[in-house]
């Protein structure tokens, strides 16, 4: 019978931990959240030997057993066996051979917990490049635990690692001695704790003294530990400092005996040469803008083809079903509810996969850390930090994956601020709205023979979203009451060639998360909007239907035109149409009529729905080649009751500003709810963005009305 064990995979950030996780588990991975915190919980299955299999839990990277961030607390509680769901049978610690001194600190702490430990020594090739030589046998002897050289990027050392894990588990091996004399740090308190909790190590007892308030313990046990601290005048800060000093003293001895390092002044690595260029005070920012521009454009260029293919497939499927199914409510529900909802989910997948694939490649090469470093100064002025820039830039393609990528921000306040302002960045879904409205109200003139006014307005809309995101973050930081201190400690990893397999694994992961979790909410909203748009008060709908049946009967030559008009009038009298009429007094100060009101409601599902709603309302034909031109003509000729054009410059600019700032995307709200684990923040987001959009649109309408009456 095969025995299954739990392996906790730990290590410093950028030590190669994720690469080893992927090498061990392949695509047999699941991604969720640790209970109570929005921190990625990556688990995967791995065959260790003939009689042993393992569930590998990839814990967040951490530098020591003294946590400061939420993700570090997650790893800490698992290692101290305070996590109710994960009880590790073995700790697999990944140590970077090119940074032995720093990695050995964390390693020594875990050894003293007296849990079975195997050390996987990564980046040995980089260590050799730096002129570092390591005596593996000597290191094993000094640490008292097995040490295995690995290179997960090339799948080297993995069989040997599995064999050592199997031997360690079957023999139930732990380190034969403590790394340092932990009991001497606080002899009497530690002895008292071990009497309360028999079987724990001296070092574990020390952590109970320091962090017992964060553990789930019985009230009586908490009181006893508190009493031990008070009676012995235990000073956690002083004890921690003494411990770290002792550990570094012992590490220095081990390094002297087992590690030979070259003179750091003898050799300048490629990484340092590249950083002189990429982190230059002037050229660094120019290169950064170029990289971000190419990233942003690539998401459009590459994703456009699969997105068009998905739209084409769903269009053909809807047409085919429309031809073979009877004209009855359930067929309309299937085509315009279920099928449209599925299309709205799957259309995001190419962007999500490509964006996260490209970001993973940037992370693998080591450049992502440089982006955060370069932008940190600007971001801090508005309450964010350098790690906020990538989600915000990603938001120019799609806010959904951008918000998901904010998980890399450790500080809870800065992460929440990033999530709250990222939807203000103009995503690709706004492009259809921008394009048609700019074409309607902005003349196609050129400045200096090459600068298009329409192009300048489009660029201005993107700048408006970016500036407002920074302004809102600056204001909102005073209202989000999270006292967690902000640290921006960033290790700049060496530059490496990207791992395509790792990027592919990440792309598949992120697509699955979106489809299986956010997709459920999108489907419900799509079906709800179908109901609101398809049904209305029975008397009104029956009157409209009877009216057009009679008109079609009397005018058979105008059948197609009358069917389209009937569809428009039915929508006008539906519940959605009634809502449009109901909100018309509210939106009239912005220059909008009831038809625009319906579009505002229906485009809550997704911003680009605005164009489709306008097409239906203005009875535009279904030929995709004629849609844009005909729709612009119809909208351009639309007039109000007093004879004024509906889409004049003031209304058009007001509507453009509204769509820049409004939260017109249920998918984004769904993913914000998922990431924050509460409806509170998406509700606040919806209210503040709608309010901001209303005020700015009203202000814009008044200005342009006065300038161009």
Word description of this protein:
The longest helix is centred in the middle third of the chain and has 42 residues. About 2% of the residues have low confidence. Helices cover 62% and strands 8% of the residues. Helix 13 packs antiparallel against helix 21, helix 23 crosses helix 24 and helix 28 runs antiparallel to helix 30. The chain has a domain of 258 residues: P-loop containing nucleotide triphosphate hydrolases (Rossmann fold, 3-Layer(aba) Sandwich), CATH 3.40.50. The protein has a seven-stranded mixed β-sheet, with helices on both faces. It has a two-stranded antiparallel sheet with strand order 7-9. Strands 10-11 form a two-stranded antiparallel ribbon. The N and C termini lie far apart (84 Å). With 709 residues, it is an alpha/beta fold. The protein is elongated.
For the biggest sheet, the summary is:
7 strands, mixed
CATH architecture of the domain at 3-260: 3-Layer(aba) Sandwich
CATH class of the domain at 3-260: Alpha Beta
Report the sheet-strand fraction: 5-15%
| DSSP, total strands | 11
- Report the helical percentage: 55-70%
Number of helices: 30
Q: State the end-to-end CA separation.
A: 84 Å
What Rg is obtained from the alpha carbons, in whole angstroms? 31 Å
The averaged pLDDT comes out at 81
Shape: elongated
